[in-house]
Amino acid sequence: MICLGIESTAHTFGIGIVTDKGKVLANVKDVFTTKTGGIVPAKAAEHHAAVCDEVVKKALETAKLKIEDIDLIAFSQSPGLGHTLRIGAFAARDLSLIYKKPLVGVNHCIAHLEIGRLLTDAKDPVLLYVSGANTQIIAYDAGKYRVFGESLDGGVGNFLDTFARELGLGFPGGPRIAELAGKGKEFIELPYSVKGMDISLGGLLTNLKQKLKSGKYRKEDLAYSIQETVFAMLLEVSERAMAHCGKEELLLGGGVACNTRLQEMAKKMCEERKSKCFVLENQFNVDNGAMIAWLGIVMHKAGIKTRIEDSEIKPYERTDDVKVTWR
Ligand code: AMP
Ligand code: MG
Question: Does ligand 1 lie within 6 Å of residue 259's CB atom?
């Protein structure tokens, strides 16, 4: 069985083609970017609609397949921006109806975890999912993927992007902050905000803006200190989730998981508690169609189908709203 998966929760329009043996035949994307400012949902949706046909075509070419060879259509049904989710859902319904293929709507956050279980040796990991909009610590417990900790205000990716914008670095900011951080020499103490199992970034952003305005600090030192502080916050709650759940595997996911300093710190934490740390190739950390296709296969094998009339998007669905019947 071969599944074509469509990702469109935010700035990425991605198409993945994956077999039921877990072989990724194609993972193609086109990303909406802006020179200034953040993501405008309506503009991103226009982008997705404009590139949709071309990305599908490229993915099929890469996989050396025709659309008729596809057995199943999966799409990210939740959570994300309504404007962009709608484009992916529309394309999925279209393909499903025209080519008479079954349809499966999947939860994007869960797809990040399941692709990690496919492509690494992780069996039952705690997922530290750090992307643009989402920052959650997710693990399986009693029939659901539960959120054990999260950011109380916006994702780490968006936080990095916002501060990068303050520095005039453009979008996406994460990689540019990482580059600057490499040139940092001095650690500047910043607000460290862990509240129970959650983290908060709002106060930190205000503090950073003030520091920047004061002109007393080097940008490189600020970038370095941001990474050290925020990643330590993330790993503190991840470690606590691992201890609470009695799990010995940590999986990184989301665009910020491409950050080599975060990977290094995560590996160190895991080493110290004699646990394993799993890091994916960057193309599977960022939003991608392959993870949607794979979760589509996993759910389909468990007998889950999405009827057209039930295929409406769910922008606000939470990870733990989904009943996990495939584990
Ligand atoms: P996603 O929403 O999962 O596609 O991830 C996008 C986010 O990942 C953006 O906010 C980027 O700034 C961030 N990002 C990408 N690469 C890196 C990196 N090397 N370090 C930190 N953040 C990154
Ligand atoms: Mg994501």
Answer: yes
* Domain extent at residue 208: 124-279
Please report where in the chains the tokens 């979760």 appear, as a residue. Answer: 295
Give the pLDDT confidence of 133-159 residue by residue, as tens digits: 999 999 999 999 999 999 999 999 999
Residues 131, 275 within the same domain: yes
> Mean pLDDT throughout 115-127?
98
Whole-number Å distance between alpha carbons of 107 and 253: 15
Q: What are the residues facing 18 on neighbouring strands? A: 3, 24
* Position in ligand 1 atom list of the atom nearest CA 261: 20
Q: Compute, in degrees rounded to 10, the torsion defined by CA atoms 97, 49, 107, 249.
A: 130
Q: What pLDDT digit, counting tens, does each position of 42-54 carry? A: 999 999 999 999 9
pLDDT for 37 beyond 90: no
Output the CA torsion 191→194→200→204 (10° steps): 10
Q: Which ligand gives the minimal distance to the CA of 285? A: 1
- In a domain, residue 118? The reply is no
Q: How confident is the model at residue 271 (pLDDT cuts 50, 70, 90)?
A: very high
| Cis peptide bond N-terminal to 172, omega within 30 | yes
Residues whose beta carbons lie less than 5 angstroms from ion ligand 2: 131, 287
Give the CATH number for residue 164: 3.30.420.40
pLDDT tens digits along 217-263: 999 999 999 999 999 999 999 999 999 999 999 999 999 999 999 99
Q: Ligand 1 pocket: which of 31, 131, 292 to mutate (most atoms <8 Å of CB)?
A: 131
Same domain? 167 vs 65:
no
Q: Whose CA is nearest to atom 10 of ligand 1?
A: 157
Ligand 1 atom 21, closest CA: 174
Q: Model's pTM, two decimal places?
A: 0.96
Find out whether the beta carbon of 227 lies less than 6 Å from any atom of ligand 1. Answer: no
What separation in Å is there between the alpha carbon of 131 and the centre of ligand 1? 6
Write out the DSSP string of 119-139.
Answer: HSS-SSPEEEEE-SS-EEEEE
